[in-house]
Queue: 2 jobs
Job 1
Amino acid sequence: MIGVFLCDCGTNIAGNMDMEYLKKELAKEDNLIVHESIFLCSQLGQDLIKETIEKEKLDRVVICSCSPKHHGDIFKECIGEKMNPYLWEMANIREQCSWATENKEEATQKALALIKGAIEASRTLQEIGQAKVPVIKDVMVIGGGIAGMHAALEVADKGFHVHLVEQNPNIGGNMCKLDRTFPTDDCSMCTISPILNETAMHKNIDILTMTDVEDVSGHPGEYIVTVRSRPRYVDFTTCTGCGDCAKTDLVMEKPKLDGPLWLDRIKIHEDLCNGCGACAKLCAKQNDPPALTQKEKDAIPEYDTHKCVGCWVCVEKCPKKAIEITNVCPIVVPSEFNLGLGFRKAIYVPDSQAVPLKYLRDPETCLQLNGTMDCQGCTTVCKAKAPCQDTEEVRQLKVGAIVVATGYEQYDLSGTEYNLEHPNVITGLELERLISPSGPTLGELKRPSDGKIPQTVVFIQCAGSRDRRYAEYCSKICCMYATKNARLIKADHPEIDVTICYIDLRAAGRGYEEYFDQAREMGIRYIRGNVSEVLADGDQLLVRTENTLLNEPLLLEADLVVLSTALVPSQGTKHLIETIPLVPGKDGFIAPVHVKIAPVDTATTGIFIAGTAEAPKPIQECITDAGAVASRVATFLKDDQITVDLVTSHINPDICIKCGECNEICNYDAIDTEGDIYEVVDVACHACGMCTTVCPTNAIELRYFSDIQLEKAVDGILEKDRDSVIAYCCSQCGYNAADLAGTAKMRYSPEVKIVRVPCSGRVTIPQMLYPFTKGAKGVMIGACLEGQCHYIDGNIKEKEKVALAKQILDLMGIGGEKLELFNISSAEGAKFVESAEKMVSRC
Amino acid sequence: MNPVEKAARDSNVEKCVQCGKCTAGCPSGRQSRLRTRTLVQMAYQGQDVTGLPELWDCTTCYNCAERCPKGVNTVDAIILLRNLAVQKGNFPRIHLSAIENLYNTGNGFPLSPEVAQIRAIIGLKKEPYDVSTAPEELEKVKKILDITGFLELVRGGTT
């Protein structure tokens, strides 16, 4: 027995249709009972529904009232008290009928067709159960920058165990490299240092440094992540971070090394040496060839560092204590942490304030590890005996949720008009190291070519950003960080002429405009003009720009040029996009599942994003992201099990041929193709239904919004009114736009009758053609705007199907113009009406 | 849409953010009145720029178009606008001699004694191989110019 409940909605519905006629017509149906209520959503109305279900032993319910988007949840809960909450349908006779139709008679007839559609569809409904998936309470955070650390801390504070995976030897990411931060000029290291230590000390966080993510399998709630940790060649537990091994006497005159160096390990103090030759003899006994040789008696021995293995016998045995260790490790290479400025040894920590402060050896340059010689330098000097042979370690970790915080890097502008090859053309991040007190110049602004203090500094904004050739988007933080660095230079050296060439100054944020005002007051010159090229005349640089406000081409002289380089996804971010199911945007960053309403959720359930892996953003927004992500993770993992309503797709293994088409189209990695049979991972499935459109054997089907359910809805409508245009509207946009049109009392032809689908991409070609076989005048599809599909790209895929179906309709002689897809956002009620009218006029 | 508007539209002037990269890198603009960015802005605002004399200062080196971050086809726009200018009779008379040369010798800038001397110094043939040294080819060039009414068009210029 089906119970049909008509709602008057006061006069909202009953005022524009003949309720008596509807009841009379519906009463002609077999096995059906009709009730009317003035307000069905009221307690009285709900009681009527519940009592009728019990009394009449209803097995299906049809609610004829407002939009399911309006009171759908109320009715679902009410009906769910008495029967399975999916055994009912809703006919939207308010927004999409009484409000959208001028003529009462027409509205009544349209309502009858919509109700009949809902009745027929309701007959096809099956009970829908729930699946419970066990949840692992551990979380993995990938990336130990400011966003990752903060997310890890927030999640750990909520009681979850966190594996924090970092590819570098230390945590802290790019923020560790900054001198100060806008708009407060706080010392970056002072801000981040407590966070670094708190992360390292937290009992719920274990940090995996030098570790890459290799693979992610499993499903939301139980991901299995394979991680590979590269060896440090220094024992992590015993190393005290004392730095004896990295001792050096190298003083750099300019910020940049010309190349790798092999320094002397020892210094012979000529004033103390008496030329006894003991050292040379000992050296010759120990080493072949010897590093110390005495050409003639009483002469000061000659030393060749390329032969010295660092046994230190000479230092220990010299009777005059004339030999001093200057470099335990003789190998010097440019420092990665300092972006190629400054130097490090083959045994090193990235930065003196690195967390964890544990040394590591670089197997490429370490003389012992790369096999150049049996070097014993650090192994002998280290009191803790920490340098060791070491191997990489591959582990599998089980986690319930994953946070991706893999960050950004600077666009490589080598080989462009910006002349980055010139040593005095540097990037913003390089400048941070040059003015940082812990940087290679200890905070002295020296230009790389010769170490002189520059007298003119030109900042070039949008270097690579907002540019179709490099990065099309605005990198968001550059206006502010260039202004910050310009201010810091000006504050230290008021005599330096500082110019910023910009296109548009974007200072939107708390305290930003004021910060910019102060910069102008400090005498920083802003020129509104993009830079065409950077030329060089020896160490001197020339910058071609235009003062666009004066219409004047300019040639600026500069001692130092700083490029505000575009921010692009880091290598780690790109690697992760290839490794785990993440969807990149057009800009290459990881796209959130919805840019507005789900900004830290990815398309894959249980995988979240924070920080600049998503887009360029300032530190405060990374922190906001991290907090949001921690909240989302906690919500996701709060119970021991995740409960999912099985409105998802399911595969009939008897007819599945395992072709993999469903897996190919699925944006959520929700098809498990590992086992003997293909299965839908219910907890990952978003129930968009796109998979059902590509299965060649119809083996995969949505449990709700099934093929038969949609077909019967169309049947019901057309049975009552063949002069109809069937409008398949997606639940996310097209349907909402139609509701909005009705709410605004925009009228459109009652011929247009809407059948709700989860996503436009769920509509198959047969479903497009089917209404024509039943006499429909036309078919339209209401989809989200391109690029705004709530299931990522259902509308784009649907567009291809519509093009094909149009050809079929042409061949059939019906005419392809009788089918059309319209991209309409939720807010575009008027566009829905316009599209509907266009369709009616065509059919 | 009138032809000037169409030329502007076809060249993507609506994408221009007035950054100034074009003017900044313009070798001609350093010596002349040409301000490419301003031309693009005027075209974007629907102004008819075909009467501006600086339209003829562009050497079509394509520095601006290649480096334009937004993909505005500045040089193509200038060439289109010049064609429209000629059709309207807005044509600097100073270019007429080059055009007469083109018609009479097949080369807008025929060999000058100075250039001939330089060619000799660097060991090139006295005369370059072009239409001016191939009379039968020159006749073909003239024929094309006659059929298209080229001379009438440019001689009608008033500027």
Note: Chain B touches chain A at residues 17-26, 29-30, 35, 37-38, 63, 67, 69-71 (CB under 8 Å).
Job 2
Amino acid sequence: MATRMQLCTFIVDDLLFGVDVMRVQEIIQYQHMTRVPLAPKLIRGLINLRGQIVMAVDLRERLDLPPRGGDEPPTNVVVQGVDAAVSLLVDSVGDVIEVSDDSFESPPATMLPRYRQVVDAVCKLPHGLLLLLDPERAASSSEGGPVGNLGYGR
Amino acid sequence: MNQDDEIISQFLTESLENLDLLDRELVQLEQDPGAQSLLSSIFRTVHSIKGSAGFLAFKKLEAIAHTGESLLSLMRDGKVRLEETRTTGLLAMVDAIRQQLNHVSESGSEGSEHLGALIEALGLLKDDSTLAAAASQLAQLGLDRKELAQSARPVMVPEVATTTVADSVPPPSAHSAATVANAFIGRVEATEPKAAAAGPARLPGEESKHVDPRIRVDVGLLDRLMNLVGELVLARNQLLQHASKSQDESLIGTCQRLNLIAAELQEGVMKTRMQPIDNVWSKFPRIVRDLARACGKEVSLEMDGNSTELDKTIIEAISDPLTHLVRNAIDHGLETPTQRLAAQKHRGGTLSLRAFHEGGRVNIDVADDGRGIDADRIRAKAIERGLLTPEAARMMSHHDLVNMIFAPGFSTAEVVTNVSGRGVGMDVVKNNIERIGGTVDVETRLGQGTAIRIKIPLTLAIIPALVVGAGGELFAIPQVNLMELVRLDTEQAKKALEYIHGVPVFRLRGTLLTLIELSQVLGLEVNVHDDVHIVVLQADDRQFGLLVDSINDTEEIVVKPLNRELKGLNVYAGATIRGDGRVALILDVVGLAERAAIGATERRAGLRTGTEAKAGQVTETERLVLFRSGAGTHMALPLNSVARLEEFPRSIVELVGSQEVVQYRGEIMPLVHLSEMFGGPRGTAELLQVVVHTGETGSIGFVVDKIEDIVESEIGVQSRDGGRRGVMGARVVQGHVTELLDAAAVRQAAERH
């Protein structure tokens, strides 16, 4: 029998994404960010999450999507990396859904490399497709390794 | 960990701590042989090691401790006296025990060394009649002076004590250095738990009733506590900010109480991480004794401020540099008794270590009353080795010159060591200390001694910082790097800021200070403002001014590490959370200077990396003013030797004798036509292009054909061949062979005309 897993879903530019719910630390509203001059563009800034400094990564930037329009501020999906949390900025957050293992298929070979880097699998839902995101790779600037590792500042 | 392991690990921790105590007490005892309480304490320590070793069935440990114990018991009963050979024997015993313990901590069992010879020697020590035999036996074990001298060579690896151990234990020296190195590592790990017990070592006179008011705490737990206190401090800062807007009396009162409690808690937790500097110093009596004997010198060690406390991480970081400085002082700084008597000094040298708090930092002085450092020889050597230009060397102060011993090129040269008496690996010492935000400085008087002063911060986790604004963001600058703040209003700014081809500079008390616009370096929008704020910063040994939009307060900030993704940006040292809950980035001043490409021109000492610069080392750059002179020759001068670039109409040039001069800023400045100087025709242009050079004897104007550019270039010359008088050499800059002008020489030549 296929095992079932829970996914936290969110939307970025009409695309439906999902992350294993166990990886999600919390979801918080948009809040003030301190930008980091000279940092890669996808790093939108640093936020203060109850005393913890969390780096926020814009998924639109990561996926080469057009900038977010309108007044709706993005939402922070804070995911746990190896030992530091990273926030993914998404357009809006959807429901937590339960899917079975056998509904996953590997992503199509023709998918853009930018997507292939971050999408682990494609999940067939009754009313559409969901892209399963690898949060660590999503949060790293394209060539770099995972972001979750906390490097110690001097 | 099973129960046996736990017992053994406890035994190791205790025994190694006891051994450190033994080292100290034996040396003390040698100086004061009558001290019964010391002798009893030593006897007890050895006895308890023997007991535990027997219980845990470590036969060799038991045997060696037993022999030592019986010798000690004879001494305690007054049947034999302690004298040098016996001390040496007992110290060798301590070393052998330590080595065995290290074996146990590494592999769980004793090492394979045969301790028979040492045991025999210790046996011979029991009788005055066989003392000589014992001495020669010990000498055979490698405790003779020559070997000690070798093992006592000053090297950065802190192995001297352990190396002598290996030498002293016969016979399979096949284990050699690698084993010793491992043993040492093993030892460091094994003594780690000691860190938690920061209290003073038990005094020899006290009876050990084991009513120890201390407990051992895991260092990891202390680190977590420290982090939590950091959070608390931040939360308090935020709360205080809210409360300041509130009218609620009781809220304000409660906040003030919270403020006090948090401050005290912060202090308390910091204290738990504090250790007395004695943890590092306690090994010095032994090192000094061994080394002095090995070098044939008489040295008395004075230590003052043993209980001065420092954060654990800092204690660990300064251990190696301090050991190195102590060794250098004995090896090179102090003279032999004969030399000292000839210099009419007391035959025994003094090495003094002093530690004390000053202005929120800790000062550590390592001073000797030895021969001092000869600044003239350093000067000569630096010029010879191409580290300094003759001109730069002439202008350098005595203080700057002697501090050249910390320059990388100086360290490895054996010649220099013999001549100046110092310098092996001093750059490593400096680097290690600067890595923890400290500074190091040397003062010396020829024939009277040398003092090396180290200043280090108390802790690294919470630091005072200045908050500045630029491009709409706030940044924190560690106060360690801060020299001074300069504010200029609109009118002053117009006058005071000068530009050399678009590069802003500011005269700070006569010295040109390169300015960097912070928002520009960081790629932020550059705001135009009326007032100019300059933050004068010190990075390594260069100074520069940072132009910022605003200067806010100084604050105690909690340093938080940055995400790995951002680690590549060397302009940030971390981030912190401010009172309003927002995140502010902490600037890394050294990284910022690199980013803005402030080359070594800003180095006070005018150092130049010579050919001996290590391979793979980042090449240093300096800014050069490029110009053409005489038949299109490309020439250059370092920007830091150029005060201004000027254009003078030919009409204002006057003659004094045959010398062309102009009135310039209230002085009479001679002009030198470079093309003429180098054998060409004098230029005929109506407008003279002049590079103003300022040296010791005032300004001089070099008339050139055309000023071309200011560029960044690697330091030093590539070729000295075919050099003309007034030219230091040549290097390729922007695809042209460019001659580097020797301003001082040109000046001299001009004066001779």
Note: The interface with chain B takes residues 32-40, 43, 45-48, 51, 53, 55, 84, 86, 139-141, 144-145, 147, 149-154 of chain A (CB under 8 Å).
